[in-house]
């Protein structure tokens, strides 16, 4: 755990330069706008430890999997969002000496992520080996208002000398992915050009054939006055730059304003890319840096209006929750239903930028409440469009008749995980995809989605489950063999309670949805039946039979659901009795030892209880929580939030807060020692859930929102924004009570501590404590 980020309500601040923290900071200070993003790499050269990262959403490469013994059903490749052309570079040479913080004495250094207005600012005072001192201030952002563009204002001032300074703004496409399986470079150059004030490169990804044009234009100012020095064009393989030299005077600044754009063949015809790129660059340079920055602040203000959480009395908690919300917004804006949310967003290479069950299980609640309805709908449509591939995936594994198995890891719907023994049997992901449909409809009331898209997905998933179970003559029940639950520290187990529970829930929900569509729109239903070739009697008959006769492991003595058959045969040593030196077990123990142990990586039984809490009484929830939490090592970032919400439900406010802290500052404090690989974006939605569903006790049932809030001891109040069926609510929980403001023309009835309250349009009310 680190503690070097300074507390501030709206900013993430690093003061002083410690090269050991550089890769961590590159992740934390990342920028993005849903369409593209980048790690906080320096503009000038840096020869120290760094992970270069620039990413264009949806542009990926199928990297052939490395494996010793190939087995049927093994994914051919691991798809990864590629490290793309680096557009931030501005090389600086002072009297023949390259400015490089790894080789300078850094006299002062400050990096600041301004979350309110959406930009990164860095300033430093450095002394080169020969004693030349310079001051640098760099501001940059990926534009939210114009999401194919970004800009940098880089100002350098010689402090103790006058002399020649050479600056080289560049676009460098000669980049690699650190996680490349065969050390391959993934891009081929298509074309490039340079002009006096800019340049571009067009590159094509190998195999997938995405073409991306990345270009720059720049202005130069000396002491604040625009100048036009002669530039020298430099063109190398996948690299363009324009170099210029100035006689700099002591105390007088030199500024490069660099405008950049990234356009991809996903959105333009390939032959139009260069023209469109030039038009974009001309448009933003005409607009100017300050206007772009104003637009950026306005776009962020609009986001914050719908999703800010204010915590009074705890700056560190305030900073943390905003950081989580900020990163989620940088990662996914919901504008494009071909895009999704990688577990690391645009902050690193890990998890390849691919889509996981994280989206449906963790991110959907955040976007449902804080973004327009179409944003979550787009996340659901992404899976709808991939239904054909999910059916193919299932066929490859031997399933038939339209059974669909969604991938655990994917870009385009094809399964592409690269951890055979763990991920292969995590078929529970299918359940989360169905649950997200239920969650969306429950939240929005948009039942037409079911007939238009949802039912087809549900049926494919239910068909899969109905074929995946088998009848046990011995038990006279259905069983589900050979699975891996959300707890990845158990592989190939029989009858994982969570998987079996979500499977039967899916089958029942599918039948219920079919009945609803049939009753409300018989014509549509008939068309669907024929489209999906449904034999209602036989198929639904089987679903119902499985729902009735499914086997779920249970321990009568302790009265808890059993994670899987045989779980209690394991040596039951609680996590508190594990020496700290043995943790995290995934770094300290062999996989063999982990698999034999009782330790749980993340919520598994408790994940099911979280999803279906209405089905269990409070004593059942408590018994299971008290049994499983002490065995949980929380070695997935997705774990603490579910525990925070359940602890809050059980009235254990202190534990709820403890779990919240662990998720909220996970990256800012580098809690798991892995932030340098990138930030844990999908679990950031879990942090939001901990506040809103945990401390706020928010739930949706029977078309209404309900709240059961409490205030963590350290806070004096907290408030959050919720959009619900047209109403825009701000809920503030303080010692006085619960204040609800409705900033919309739609009135709504909510439940606060179980009592109905009508919140009129553009009105507010206080439910006293
Ligand atoms: C978790 C999975 C998750 C993946 C990506 C793993 O560590 O165990 O549940 O889908 O990370 O976030």
TrEMBL record:
Residues 13-265 form the Glycoside hydrolase family 65 N-terminal domain. The active site is at residue 488. Substrate binds at residues 357-358, 601-602. GO terms for molecular function: carbohydrate binding; glycosyltransferase activity; hydrolase activity, hydrolyzing O-glycosyl compounds. Pfam families: Glyco_hydro_65C (PF03633), Glyco_hydro_65m (PF03632), Glyco_hydro_65N (PF03636). InterPro entries: 6-hairpin_glycosidase_sf, 6hp_glycosidase-like_sf, Gal_mutarotase_sf_dom, GH65_N, Glyco_hydro_65_C, Glyco_hydro_65_M, Glyco_hydro_65_N, Malt_Pase/Glycosyl_Hdrlase. Residues 698-757 form the Glycoside hydrolase family 65 C-terminal domain. Residues 322-689 form the Glycoside hydrolase family 65 central catalytic domain. GO terms for biological process: carbohydrate metabolic process. Transmembrane segments: none annotated. NCBIfam families: PRK13807.1. Belongs to the glycosyl hydrolase 65 family. This is Maltose phosphorylase. It comes from Mucilaginibacter gossypiicola. The lineage of its organism: Bacteria, Pseudomonadati, Bacteroidota, Sphingobacteriia, Sphingobacteriales.
């Amino acid at each position: 755990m680190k503690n070097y980020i300074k507390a501030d309500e709206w900013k993430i601040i690093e003061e002083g330069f410690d090269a050991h923290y550089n890769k961590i900071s590159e992740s934390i200070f990342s920028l993005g706008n849903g369409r593209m993003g980048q790690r906080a790499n320096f503009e000038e050269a840096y020869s120290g430890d760094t992970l270069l990262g620039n990413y264009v959403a949806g542009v990926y490469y199928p990297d052939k999997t490395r494996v010793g013994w190939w087995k049927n059903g093994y994914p051919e490749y691991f798809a990864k969002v590629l490290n793309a052309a680096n557009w931030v570079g501005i090389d600086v040479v002072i009297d023949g000496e390259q400015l490089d913080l790894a080789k300078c004495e850094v006299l002062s250094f400050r990096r600041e992520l301004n979350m309110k207005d959406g930009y990164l600012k860095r300033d430093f005072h450095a002394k080169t080996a020969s004693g030349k001192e310079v001051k640098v201030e760099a501001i940059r952002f990926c534009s939210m208002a114009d999401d194919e563009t970004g800009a940098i204002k880089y100002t350098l001032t010689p402090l103790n000398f006058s002399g020649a300074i050479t600056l080289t703004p560049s676009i460098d496409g000669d980049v690699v992915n650190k996680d490349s399986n065969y050390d391959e470079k993934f891009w081929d150059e298509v074309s490039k050009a340079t002009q006096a004030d800019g340049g571009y490169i067009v590159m094509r990804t190998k195999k997938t054939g995405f073409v991306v044009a990345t270009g720059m234009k720049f202005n130069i100012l000396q002491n604040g006055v625009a100048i036009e020095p002669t530039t020298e064009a430099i063109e190398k393989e996948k690299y363009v730059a324009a170099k210029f030299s100035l006689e700099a005077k002591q105390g007088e600044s030199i500024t490069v304003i660099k405008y950049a754009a990234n356009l991809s063949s996903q959105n333009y015809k390939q032959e139009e890319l260069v023209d469109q790129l030039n038009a974009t660059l001309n448009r933003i340079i005409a607009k100017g840096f300050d206007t772009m920055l104003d637009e950026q602040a306005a776009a962020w203000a609009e986001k914050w209006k719908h999703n800010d959480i204010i915590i009074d009395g705890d700056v560190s908690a305030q900073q943390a929750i905003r950081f989580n919300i900020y990163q989620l917004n940088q990662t996914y804006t919901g504008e494009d239903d071909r895009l999704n949310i990688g577990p690391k967003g645009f902050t690193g290479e890990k998890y390849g930028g691919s889509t996981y069950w994280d989206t449906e299980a963790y991110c959907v609640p955040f976007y449902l409440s804080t973004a327009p309805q179409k944003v979550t709908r787009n996340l659901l449509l992404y899976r709808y469009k991939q239904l054909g591939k999910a059916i193919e995936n299932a066929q490859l594994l031997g399933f038939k008749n339209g059974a669909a198995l969604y991938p655990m890891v994917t870009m385009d719907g094809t399964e592409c995980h690269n951890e055979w023994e763990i991920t292969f049997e995590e078929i529970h992901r299918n359940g989360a995809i169905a649950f997200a449909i239920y969650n969306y409809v429950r939240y929005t009331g948009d039942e037409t989605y079911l007939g238009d898209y949802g039912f087809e997905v549900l049926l494919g998933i239910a068909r899969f489950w109905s074929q995946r179970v088998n009848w046990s003559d011995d038990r006279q029940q259905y069983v589900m063999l050979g699975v891996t639950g959300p707890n990845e520290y158990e592989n190939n187990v029989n009858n994982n309670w969570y998987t079996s529970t979500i499977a039967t829930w899916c089958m029942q929900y599918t039948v219920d949805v079919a009945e609803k569509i049939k009753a409300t729109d018989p014509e549509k239903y008939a068309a669907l039946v024929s489209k999906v070739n449904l034999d209602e009697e036989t198929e639904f008959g089987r679903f119902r039979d499985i729902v009735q006769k499914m086997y779920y492991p249970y321990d009568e003595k302790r009265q808890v659901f059993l994670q899987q058959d045989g779980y209690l045969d394991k040596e039951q040593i609680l996590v508190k009795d594990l020496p700290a030196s043995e943790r995290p077990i995934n770094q300290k123990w062999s996989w063999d030892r982990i698999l034999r142990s009782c330790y749980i990586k993340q919520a598994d039984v408790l994940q099911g209880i979280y999803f279906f809490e209405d089905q269990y009484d409070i004593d059942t929830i408590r018994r299971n929580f008290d049994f499983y939490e002490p065995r949980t090592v929380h070695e997935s970032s997705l774990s603490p939030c579910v525990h925070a919400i359940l602890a809050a439900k059980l009235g254990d406010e202190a534990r709820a807060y403890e779990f919240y802290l662990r998720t909220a500052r996970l990256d800012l404090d580098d809690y798991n020692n892995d932030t340098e690989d990138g930030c844990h974006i999908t679990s950031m939605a879990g942090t939001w859930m901990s506040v809103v569903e945990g401390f706020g006790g928010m739930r949706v049932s029977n078309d209404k929102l309900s709240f059961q809030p409490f205030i963590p001891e350290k806070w004096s109040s907290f408030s959050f924004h919720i959009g619900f069926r047209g109403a825009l609510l701000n809920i503030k929980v303080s010692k006085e009570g619960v204040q609800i403001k409705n900033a919309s023309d739609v009135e709504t009835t909510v439940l606060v501590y179980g009592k109905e309250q009508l919140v009129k349009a553009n009105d507010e009310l206080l439910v006293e404590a």
